[in-house]
Amino acid sequence: MADIVKAGRVALDGIVLKKSDQKVEADQVTLDGQPLEAPHGLLAMLHKPLGYVCTHSDGEGPTIYELLPPQWMNRKPSVTSIGRLDKDTSGLLLITDLGPLVHRYTSPRAEVKKIYEVTVDHALEDSLIETFASGEVMLRGEDRPCLPAKLDITGSHTASLTLMEGRYHQVRRMFASQGWHVEKLHRRQFGDYQLGTLEVGRWQMLDTPEV
């Protein structure tokens, strides 16, 4: 930062700053004539396409970070997703550089509403509604049942599933435990945030909550 200030690239109300330790309000500062982007922390919503991974390396395919402004990777800390969606799942992802916000949403104690649109391999049965709501569904390799989940059957092979937790591949594993294979999976809501009409592969800035 000191080198940037010395180069005359940082200004306050149009006046070039001379000292890097000068105390100023971040939202009044410009860099190369442009306002600082989200100086108090960044939060954005991304409509993740199929085929993209949520890791920072591209060993398994293109990453979601290729869809974001390159300068976000240079933030300190750099941005990361709040939770993940697997390569074969599309939908809403929150992106932030605020560690406390990541913890708020991903802590094991956090009960964050997540709504998924699901397509399965064979006709759904009404009994599955009660099964998922029972709080007794066990996933292979785990020793505690899933929290009660709300299943709305929307077609012979389609449903909407609302979860209040986020285990590894939970939606796919819940259906598999009852004999169904998930063929398509899409998340349309995370917490209070809804995907709405945001186009696939696009992102939009959100107001940053207090953390």
Automatic annotation (TrEMBL):
UniProt entry tagged with the keyword Protein transport: no
Its EC number(s): 5.4.99.-
Enzyme class: isomerase
Record-linked InterPro entries: PsdUridine_s_RsuA/RluB/E/F_cat (IPR042092), PsdUridine_synth_cat_dom_sf (IPR020103), PsdUridine_synth_RsuA/RluA (IPR006145), PsdUridine_synth_RsuA/RluB/E/F (IPR000748), PsdUridine_synth_RsuA/RluB_CS (IPR018496), RsuA_PseudoU_synthase (IPR050343), S4_RNA-bd_sf (IPR036986), TruA/RsuA/RluB/E/F_N (IPR020094)
Keywords: Isomerase
GO process terms (BP): enzyme-directed rRNA pseudouridine synthesis
Pfam families: PseudoU_synth_2
Transmembrane domains' residue ranges: none
Entry GO CC: cytosol
One Gene Ontology molecular-function label: RNA binding
Ranges where the Pseudouridine synthase RsuA/RluA-like domain occurs: 44-177
Entries under PROSITE patterns matching the protein: PSI_RSU (PS01149)
Family: Belongs to the pseudouridine synthase RsuA family.
Annotated NCBIfam families: pseudouridine synthase (TIGR00093)
Protein name per its UniProtKB record: Pseudouridine synthase
Organism (species): Prosthecobacter debontii
